[in-house]
Every structure is written in structure tokens, then in C-alpha cells.
What does this fold into?
Amino acid sequence: MGLRLGDVAPDFTAETTEGTIEFHKWLGDSWGVLFSHPADYTPVCTTELGTVAKIKSEFDKRNVKVIGLSVDSLDDHQGWIKDINETQNTSVNFPMIADKDKTVANLYDMIHPNSLNNLTVRSVFIIGADKTIKLTLTYPASTGRNFPEILRVIDSLQLTANHQVATPANWQDGDDCVIVPAVSNEEADKKFPKGYKAIKPYLRMTPQPNK
Ligand code: BEZ
It folds into this structure.
């Protein structure tokens, strides 16, 4: 069975473009995004890795470490990074795991043989500071991911972790948030000094607490 939300993200030691990484130790107190791509020297992956490099500061701002993975060799990663830097006008600035023996891919169930035989699909795991899995996403090889959406989810998850609010459909940074059901009205009065609107007893909206 694959990994589920709330599970501890499996620890591993792996060779990466930035040296050997012990995953949990490398994460330290940060949040993490572990994402796989099918193969080096492929077009959609080239655009994805370039995009992540360009928005790395957005992950840094949120105390999130990013790490990529495919089942290619370190040599291939290093050669391909030159192409990514050249064609995407960037400089890859995060580690990429060279998972040639598929240890990490199997640990995280990133190979879906009925979709893409022997290669990793486009998996994303967002991992909280407590090392548990907060989000999983799986995209097919043919669709490049929407990384602003991944940042948006991180913002939502961190609001929940820090302020006990959830975020409604299509929420964007700065929009009103939902007070989680576990917070009573009495607690909400204290916790949300900007106030809240109870549209229904179970649907209470409050201005985004960290704005
Ligand atoms: C790509 O990155 O373009 C790609 C990789 C594997 C299969 C199909 C597309």
C-alpha cells in the first residue's frame, strides 16, 4: 500500500547532486517537498526543474527544502542540469536524488507500472516539520506540474499548523479562511482578534490570521 497522509515520511540515505543526503537529518526542522520526474533529458521534466529552480526563494521563504528525484545516474543528472540551466535560463539550486536502484522510488511508491513502466511518475510529497506527510500528488508523465499550486498548498498547510484555520475552495493568499471545527466559538473569540462571521454554525470565516 502506498503512503498516506499523516504517515511518517520514510527516511533514507541517497546520493544526490549535492552529495550524500540522510533525508530526515537533511530536513532538520524544515518542511520538505520531495518530487519525482520520469527521466533526465526529457522535455517536460526540463521545464519543471527549471521552474523549481527559479522559484526556490519562495520555498526558502516558507522554510521548505526542495529535493528532486529520478531513477537516473548522478552523471546523467549533472549533464542534464547544464542543459536545464542553459535552456531555462536558470541555475539548478536544489539537490536531485540519483535513485538508479529505485530504493527511494519504491519506498515512496513512485513507480506506477500501468502508467509508466520502470520510471517514476510525477509524484509530490509535502512533508511537515514533524516529518509526516501532509500532501501527496501524482501527475502523469505528460503533464507538467503547477508549482504555484504547490506553494499555495504549503501556505494553507502552514496556516492550519500555526493558526488552526483551514482554507476554502480556490483560496489564495490574503483571502478569508475557515475556522476549523475543533475550535469552539469561545476559543475563536480569543484566537481571532479580527473577528469572524458565522454564516452557519459550522461555517465560520475569519480574515487570514497572519496578514
Ligand atoms: C517529459 O518530461 O517530457 C516526459 C518524460 C517521460 C515520458 C513522457 C514525457
About this structure: The domain at 13-144 is CATH 3.40.30.10 (Glutaredoxin).
